[in-house]
Structures are given as structure tokens and as C-alpha cells.
Amino acid sequence: MFDQDHIAEAIAWRHDLHRHPELGFEEHRTSEMIAALLTGWGWRVHRGLAGTGVVAQMGQGAPVIGLRADIDALPIVEATGAAHASTIPGKMHACGHDGHAAMLLLAARQIAAEGVEQGTVTLIFQPAEESEGGARVMIEQGLFTQFPVDKVFGIHNWPGLAPGRFVARDDKMMAAFSVFDIEILGKGGHGAMPEQSDGVIAAAGRTAAALQEIPARALSPLEPGVVSVTQIHSGSAYNVCPDRAVLRGTCRWFGPEAGDIIEERVRRVATAEATAQGCTANIDYQRRYPATINSAPEAALARDVAAEMGLDTAMTGPSMASEDFAFMLNEVPGAYLWLGAAREGENPGLHSAKFDFNDAVLPAGAELWVRLARRATRG
Ligand SMILES: [Zn+2]
Ligand SMILES: [Zn+2]
């Protein structure tokens, strides 16, 4: 579908973005580059939603299709050794959002060259997908009231699937998530005289074990759920029982009822285990993203388009990872799509310090966007 030199240019944009990663809501350079390219191709460009968001439109009237790419990087020290490695210490594109931006740009160039005869194509370059909820902020600031769309799609490169694979599930795609901080407080004392202090360490250990049992015992075996304790901080000496411990972690689920059960149990378990050891627990539990649930007709449309391209659309998943595209799917029918992007040999996963977007799948991702835009705007 694309000229070879256009593909080469898109890969060069991807490498340029990779060299200059920007964290959530700070994607100023990235946003500038995207807006400049789109303006040059004749798109009507709007900037400023969620600060660094870029929305661009071409065509007019109904139907209106929204195509979304996320653009933020992660606070990770890059270890790829690539020629285009990050030039900014402690920041890197370890989730492939550099590739997502370049894919949508390559598609945008092609769509502009072909012209939009009917309906409207709306491109959404979204900041801060990683934990900050840039999609939610764009929506709160009027994304879908200023730019109403009939359907919205998002694509993520998926290193767990081989190139040529493509997944658009009819319903559950990715899980909802929360984060928690549990502070356990009690009396500290001499390590040799445990009877003189409260069991802060015992409470922390028991809490960690009991929390991770919640999905197994509080949810139906047919209902997916995860509680992972990912941090425990306490103590500073061999012979001192500490007076404070902090546990942190994340929970994942799909159904709203499961989300309520998990939250209630986390609070109950932490409080009970602390109390049993003579301690108190301060619990800060925050729900972050809802579950990413596709609508079946839009998922079917995406599979149809992928099948036209010869991609294998066999179903797999869902994933217990989370995605803030969920906020867009709460507003508008649409689908979140995984594009197979595994590398031969060593294939580091998303968020690995060695992860680098697989440029070989960039043209397929862009072609998918162009074909989806054509199909969805022609009704
Ligand atoms: Zn990510
Ligand atoms: Zn990502």
C-alpha cells in the first residue's frame, strides 16, 4: 500500500521519537512533531486537549471514525543498545508508543493522499497512557463533545503474538486496575524482646499472603482477578522490630462486581491482619482504569479488515494488563486491537528495558488504519 520511501520515513520518525522519549503529559516535542507533519499534509489540527494531545480531522459529516495512538514513554533506563536508543537518561519508549505514533502518521499521510470522500476521519494522538489516564483527561476536556465520533479504535503492538497475528476480541480485551498502599503501624522495640513490641513484620507478611489469596477464595473460579503485592518496605536493623511497614501493589479484574469484592476484601484483610498483631492499617486504595471492553460489531469490522490483509485473526486473550483506551470505549462503541509484533530470537516484553518496537510490523499497522478508515467512513 505504501511507497518504500514513505515506509523508510515513518521508521525514521519512529527512531526520532525513540531517541527523544517524553513521559505522560510532557510530550511537547512529540506533539509538536506530530502536529507539524499533519498540518503539512492538510489535516485540520487541534492541539491542547490534556495539554499535549493532538486531534486532527479530514473530510466532513457522518460517519466519523476515531483512530487513536498513544504517545508517551516510561521512566525506565534503556538497555537496548540500539543506534536509536534514548538520549534522555531514565526515560524510554518501552511500550512501543513511538511505533504507535509513527504507524498512525504513516496512515495519515496515505489517507491525506487518497482524500476522504465521505464521512470524517478523526486522529487522536493521546498523551499519558501509562498509569496517568491521558484518555480520561482528553475526554474530560471535551474530546468527544468537540469531536464526536461514531466509532473509535486503538491498536497496540503485541510482542506476545507473532507478526501476521491480529486479535480483536468481541468483549473483554484488557482488565480494570487499581493500586493500593497499606501502611501498618505498631509499637517498635528490641529484636530480642518481641513481647515489648507489636507484630509489624508479622502483619506485613501475613497481609501479603492473605491479599494474594483473595481472587482464589472471594471470586468465583470462573471470574478472573489478580491481587499482586509488589513492594514491601520495613525495618533498618538486625535487632530492631520496626514500628512501620508499607505494602504496595495492584489489583486486576473485569466485572464491576469483582472490582467491588476485591476492594472490600483488600480493606478487610489488611485491617484484620494488622489488628491481629496489635497494629493498625492505613489503606489507600485507588481505582485507576476500567476494563477495556470491545463492542462486537466494531471488533468484527476490524477482524474483517485484518483478514483482507491476510492477517491471522484467531482469537486469544484477554489480558490482565490494563489500558486507558477503556475510557474511550466507555463513551463510544469501538475496539482495542492487538497487532502481533514478536521479534525473532530474543523478544523482550512490553516495559522491558530491552524492548524496542518491531519496525517490521509498522507498515501492516498503518495499512490496517488506512483500511479501517476507508471501511468505517464508507458506512
Ligand atoms: Zn505500557
Ligand atoms: Zn502501551
Write a structural description.
This is Hippurate hydrolase. One of its GO terms (molecular function) is N-acetyldiaminopimelate deacetylase activity. The protein has helices at 4-19, 28-40, 97-114, 134-140, 143-146, 200-218, 256-276, 296-308, 325-331, 362-377; strands spanning 44-47, 54-60, 64-70, 119-126, 151-158, 166-167, 172-174, 176-185, 189-190, 225-234, 240-241, 244-253, 280-289, 292-293, 334-340. By secondary structure, it is of the alpha+beta class. It folds into two domains: 4-174 and 291-377, Zn peptidases (Aminopeptidase), CATH 3.40.630.10; 176-289, Alpha-Beta Plaits (2-Layer Sandwich). The chain starts with a helix and ends with a helix. 35% of the residues lie in helices and 24% in strands. The model has no long low-confidence stretch (mean pLDDT 97).
Q: What is the fold's blueprint, element by element?
A:
Blueprint: H1 4-19, H2 28-40, E1 44-47, E2 54-60, E3 64-70, H3 97-114, E4 119-126, H4 134-140, H5 143-146, E5 151-158, E6 166-167, E7 172-174, E8 176-185, E9 189-190, H6 200-218, E10 225-234, E11 240-241, E12 244-253, H7 256-276, E13 280-289, E14 292-293, H8 296-308, H9 325-331, E15 334-340, H10 362-377
Parallel strand pairs: 3-4, 3-5, 5-15
Antiparallel strand pairs: 1-2, 2-4, 6-15, 7-14, 8-12, 8-13, 9-11, 10-12
The structure holds zinc ion (2 copies).
InterPro entries: Amidohydrolase (IPR017439), Bact_exopeptidase_dim_dom (IPR036264), Peptidase_M20 (IPR002933), Peptidase_M20_dimer (IPR011650)
Binding site for Mn(2+): 95, 97, 130, 156, 351
Keywords: Hydrolase, Manganese, Metal-binding
